[in-house]
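Protein: Short-chain dehydrogenase/reductase 3
Species: Lobosporangium transversale
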Amino acid sequence: MVNRRSIDFVVRMLNASVFHLSFPFFLIPCIKLYGITNEGLAFQLAAVYGVLLFTIRLAYWLHDRSQRQDGKIDWDDEIVLITGGANGVGYLLAEALAIRHITVVVLDIHPVKTALDIESYICDVSNPEDIVRVAKEIREDVGEPTILVNNAGIVHGKPILDLSVDDIKKTLNVNFFGQAWMIKEFLPDMIKNNHGHIITISSAMGMMGAPQIADYAASKAAAKSFHEVLETEIRYVYKTPGVKTTLVCCGKVETGMFHGVKENLPFFTPPLEPLEVVRKIIRSMEERRGRNQIMMPFYVHFVPLVSITPAWFQDLARTISGADKAMETFVGKKGFVQEKLIVEPIELDSNNGSKNSEADKDK
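Structure follows.
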C-alpha cells in the first residue's frame, strides 16, 4: 500500500481527481454556473485543459494498446524462474505466484523455506557453469522457463578504497554477469518459440550513484544498459514480438538489503514495501506489454533527468535528499530482522488465472 505520508500518495490522488479524464466535464459546467461566458478566460483555460488532457490520455492509451498486442497471460502455459528467491522481493514474488498454483522455480545459494509448491535449486548465478548445470535439471524436472526474473543481488556498502578486488568482482558477478549468463541460457528458447518475458531488476542507483555504493551502482547501471540493448535486439535483430521485457528501477525497498540507510526527506523519497514491488511485477507479467518499465517510488522518474544536469545541481540534489550521507549508517541484512509477511493472493485476471483459480476462491 502506498505510504499516505508521501508524494506518491498525493500523485495518486491527483490522478484520481484533477488529472482524471472526467474532471473537465465537471469543471466546465461549474464555471458556467458562475455565469462565465464562453469568451471568459476561466472557460477558455478549462476548455484547453480538457483538450490537452484528452490528447495525452488518448496518446497513452494508443501506446499502451500497441504494447499489448498478444493479450493477457495464460498462466497455465507459464513457468516462472526467479533468481535470488530465498528472501526479499524474490521470495515474496515466488510465494505470491505459487499461492495461485502457478509453476515457480527459484534459484539461490540458500535453500528456500516455504510450505508452498515452489521448485528450488541451489545455484550460484555468478558461475556460468553452475547455471548450465541447473538449467539442465530444471528442463528435465519442470520444463522450459518462459518468464525469467533476474532478481539476485548483493551490496557491500563500502567506500571505493575499502572495497577489495574480490568485493568488486563479487558484486559485478552477481548483480550483472549473473543476469547476463541467465539471459544467455534461457533466451534462445524464448526466441525460438516467440514467447517469453525477461524481467531485469536494476535500481535507481543504476541511473545516478552515491557515495559508498560504487560497485553496486556500476553493476546496476550495467544491468540496465544490457537490458535496454536486449530490448532493441529482440525487436530489430531477432524480430520476436512475443518475447516481452520489463526493467525494474526502484529506490530503497524494505527487504533489509539497505537496512540502516536513512531517508532525509521521506515525504519525497519514501522507502517501498516489498509487496508494492511484487504487485507491479506481477501486473507486468499479466499484461505482457512489449517493453515495460517499473520506476517507483515517484521520485525515481526524475533521477535520469538529474543525472544529466550540471555537476553542481547533482551535488545539490544529493545534499538536499541526503544521498551524500545516506550510506554512512548502512548496516545491511546482518542487522535486519525481517517481519513475517502474510502473502495473500494477488488479484489476477479472472480470464487468465491459473487452472486452480476457482479452488482458490473457495479457500
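Remarks: The chain has two domains: 7-65, 75-334.
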